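Ticket closed. Logging final result for DNA polymerase III subunit delta.
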Amino acid sequence: MHSFLICQGTTKTRREKVRHLIARLRAESGNKSELIRSDPDTFILRPDPTIGIEAIRGIISSLKFKPFRSKAKIVVIIRADRMTREAQHAILKTLEEPAPNSFLILETRNQYSLIPTIRSRCQLMLATSPSPRSTIRGEAVDLARSLMEPSLSLRLKAVGEIDQKEAKARLRQILMLAREKMKLDPWWYQVVKLTHQAILDLDANVNPRLTLEHLALRFPQDRKGNDRNRGNS
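Final structure:
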């Protein structure tokens, strides 16, 4: 695996895990330098205040060249959740098919602040053990974000991946999340209403697949996009 996603924990524990991973990768690639900042084969990208598509394209372009000192190049993206939507999509192909002589490390507090396709292409490394509550909340945020996708095919794909036996439990996760967020943002009321109705339909023995597809068709599309879930998730 050439792509890593370091998340959860505190800023200190995440950065420490990043440093340890860099040290291990550098040692494995024959780089004996102890200074990361002066290493021409290690790139660290930080938000200012976000990370745009041009910055990502620059990193991708630099990976096309051979390393200077070691056998591999290492790219670290600090606060990867600050990547714009366009930047996240731009890095997907590199994460999926990285150069054989390169490694990518993404660091963020919450892995669910990144689009699902990025997470699926990275080896997840936790800076701390997640609590059951945070795991459930993360799953709810992930599903809600997928249901907000402008593309109907992506929304149907998201519900199509849900085990029908777990449909009610997954909808209850979204309902709990929406009720919590509704306290600060009235927009979530429509999510509460639709999700609650879907749960009632399941209680009435309506076909789970039809219920989920109906929810995907009617799920409210936020004009702000999936960013409504970002930051406080």
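The mean pLDDT is 84. No further action required.
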